[in-house]
């Protein structure tokens, strides 16, 4: 996203009491964006480069109190609510720092020191490319689920306008105007996050959406949702709110695929189709033994409805379901394996599916 878009969303997220984590390659303007936010809102910007900090720098030093040990406030601690804390290089921090900062993210406090009400917190990180020195923070879903994840990709025209406003010589601005591809080498930001929906993430999303008007939701709704519940759930959510496609329940597809439902599925765009495929494969993976017993007794109905579904979807999309069933068969045992083995036998009456299974061996 453009810097201006990320700045707007970061402000909305922080006004809602949540925390944005801005991803971008070095030099794209993450820190400058935070400085602009602070200036525009009359706040002091406190930058914590936690890759260079020890736990004592972050949490304060211990001191003797009245019969017990207390921790002094660290020197960066804000004195009032008019502050933004930028936690920079968050994916390069040592595990001990990460553990220490969790309390700040969750409870807005460190030890017995509580942040003044209204202090905003944001974070910044470089993408998990091999060029960056970082620890395994990126793999910690509990930590990453605390943030709304946003990515910055510099826009040449936006940068040119900004550069002229801050006095960059015309020779530089004009050069980028002539050769916009040379503004930055890496235009793709791959966050490699496995964000998943949870009750907490939906609650956080709801808090932020309250502060978006209809026009802003149209523009940013998917980006916001994808940054906290993951792209699949976000896609389905936004489509549902727009009335684009009401994705049917997997059980309805497998047991009661009516002609009216088939007609509706045929009208799905590719986004809705992908959401449907994702929903069905997830459902098949998570079937319990009790549910499998019921489906096993109705396996003829299930196979018939899947073949009906085949006629409603693009071939590649439908075969995502078949490949998933074959994968489950290879990696499961017991009742689940028996069910999917029998299901594929039933589905093999279709020539395309039979060809696929024979080639698969």
Characteristics:
2 domains; alpha/beta; 361 residues; Rossmann fold; globular; 18 helices
Number of H/I helices = 18
Q: Report strand order across the widest sheet.
A: 2-5-8-1-9
Strand tally, please? 9
| Helix share, percent | 40-55%
Spatial gap, N to C terminus? 45 Å
Radius of gyration, in Å, reads 26 Å
InterPro entries: AAA+_ATPase (IPR003593), ATPase_dyneun-rel_AAA (IPR011704), ClpA/B (IPR001270), P-loop_NTPase (IPR027417)
GO molecular function: ATP binding; ATP hydrolysis activity
Domain AAA+ ATPase: 16-153
Protein name: ATPase AAA
Description of the molecule:
- The chain has 361 residues and is α/β, with parallel strands linked by helices.
- It has 2 domains: 3-230, P-loop containing nucleotide triphosphate hydrolases (Rossmann fold, 3-Layer(aba) Sandwich), CATH 3.40.50.300; 245-360, no CATH class.
- It is 55% helix and 10% strand.
- It contains 18 helices and 9 strands.
- The chain has helices spanning 3-15, 30-41, 55-59, 95-107, 141-144, 156-165, 170-178, 199-209, 214-229, 231-242, 250-255, 259-266, 270-285, 289-297, 299-310, 315-331, 334-347, 351-360, and strands at residues 20-23, 44-49, 62-64, 69-71, 83-88, 109-110, 113-114, 120-125, 148-151.
- The strands form 3 sheets. The protein has a 5-stranded parallel β-sheet.
- The longest helix has 17 residues, at 315-331.
- The chain is globular.
- The chain starts with a helix and ends with a helix.
- The model has no long low-confidence stretch (mean pLDDT 88).
């Amino acid at each position: 996203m453009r810097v201006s878009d990320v700045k707007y969303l970061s402000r909305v997220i922080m006004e809602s009491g949540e925390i944005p984590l801005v991803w971008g390659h070095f030099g794209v303007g993450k820190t400058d964006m935070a400085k602009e936010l602070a200036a525009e809102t009359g706040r002091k910007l406190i930058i914590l480069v936690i890759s260079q900090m020890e736990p004592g720098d972050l949490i304060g030093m211990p001191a003797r109190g009245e019969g017990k040990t207390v921790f002094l406030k660290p020197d960066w601690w804000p004195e009032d609510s008019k502050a933004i804390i930028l936690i920079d290089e968050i994916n390069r921090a040592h595990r001990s720092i990460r553990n220490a900062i969790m309390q700040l993210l969750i409870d807005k406090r460190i030890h017995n020191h509580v942040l003044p009400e209204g202090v905003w917190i944001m974070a910044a990180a470089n993408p998990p490319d091999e060029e960056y020195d970082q620890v395994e923070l990126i793999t910690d879903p509990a930590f990453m689920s605390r943030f709304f994840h946003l990515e910055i990709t510099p826009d040449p025209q936006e940068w040119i306008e900004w550069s002229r406003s801050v006095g960059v010589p015309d020779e530089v601005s004009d050069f980028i105007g002539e050769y916009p591809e040379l503004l930055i080498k890496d235009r793709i930001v791959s966050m490699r996050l496995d964000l998943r929906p949870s009750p907490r993430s939906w609650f956080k999303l709801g808090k932020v959406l309250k502060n978006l008007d209809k026009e802003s939701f149209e523009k940013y709704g998917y980006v916001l949702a994808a940054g906290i519940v993951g792209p699949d759930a976000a896609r389905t959510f936004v489509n549902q709110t727009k009335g684009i496609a009401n994705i049917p329940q997997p059980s309805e597809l497998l047991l009661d695929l009516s002609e009216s439902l088939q007609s509706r599925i045929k009208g799905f765009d590719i986004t809705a189709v992908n959401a449907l495929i994702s929903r069905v494969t997830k459902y098949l993976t998570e079937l319990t033994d009790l549910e499998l017993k019921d489906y096993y007794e109705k396996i003829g109905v299930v196979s018939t409805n899947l073949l009906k579904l085949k006629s409603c979807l693009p071939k590649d999309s439908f075969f995502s379901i078949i490949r998933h069933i074959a994968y489950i068969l290879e990696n499961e045992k017991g009742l689940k394996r028996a069910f999917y083995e029998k299901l594929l036998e039933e589905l093999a009456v279709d020539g395309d599916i039979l060809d696929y299974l024979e080639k698969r061996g």
